[in-house]
Amino acid sequence: MNSKPLSYVEISKKNLIHNIKQFRNLLKGNVKIAAVIKANAYGFGDKEVAKILTPYADYFQVDSIDELERVRKVTKKPIFVFGYLNEEGIKRAIKLKAIISAFDLIHLLKINYISGKLKTKTKVYVPIDSYLGREGIMPSQVENFIVEIKKMKNIELEGIYSHFANIEDTMNFTHAEKQIDIYHKYVDVFKKNGFDKIKTHISATSGILVYEKGNNLHNIVRLGLGIYGMWPSEHLKYLNKNKIILKPALRWVTHVAQIKVLPANHPIGYGLTFITKKSTQIAVIPQGYADGLPRSLSNKGEVLIKGKRAKILGRVAMNMIVVDISNIKDVYPEDEVVILGKQGNNEITAEDIAEDSNTINYEVTTKISALLPRVIV
What we know:
By secondary structure, the chain is of the alpha/beta class. Helices cover 30% and strands 23% of the residues. It is elongated, with a radius of gyration of 24 Å.
């Protein structure tokens, strides 16, 4: 008997370790890797990925207090919380010895006050908004910010960081250069004002591939997408094909629930968006948009059965889809179905699904339901 669940997400331990080692070799030197496991580790499972990568990562990065509390149960490595924390979140994060992001001076004052109440000193990183237009202090506020932070007795400013806006667009590097210039200018301001040992980071996977290049430009990099065997863009994949090999580390698996033959002129699914033109053998598959399968794959997405592609017919429902198996022989109930990943010599990638759904590979995997079991292989 098969003891595996009906539907699950299969995670390759071997490939996750391979991928982080590829970046470790690419970076060289003393650059530390913060493995980004926010959004349930991009859909892979945060606790599962943290367990696997604890021997290989220097830090972990999460977004929320709930993520922090889950991950802290499985690793003792330092954890960055770079999402916004309210008062309750700050208290809980401090007790778990997290490294907290302070979005602005008001936020920092709150962290300092709560740290004082808890009779401790909290490590903090501050984001610099270098032409991204998102969280963090504006460059014009930096000097005043430094004056104020020196007054705070319960804060240890360990580092500053920023985010690239479009560095994966290597055909147009102008904005990235502008971001680099302004960020480095204010890194120097911090160093000249007594924070000479401050740690810095600006690069995620794209920045590592385009900008860092093993030159030890910053103390830390934030490695997310690349760990999971995905590329930020096809162009970056092409440019780095001789430098680094990434291996897919996820298979989304389910099994056939029912097989039957529908006659010609028979509707399939809600909204009557597909009508059979001829007698059609179908398989009912027990996964839908509640499980993370984009509804936009209605009438155009595919799954793998017996190593062959089977097209989705009709609308993707909440927990179910129908696929055409007319051209696939010997399909039976409970046969394996692969929604994302390899089966035999065929593969459906996150990029395939993203293209059909008019989105990006990041969203495809992060949308996979956290309720589906993660199975480590």
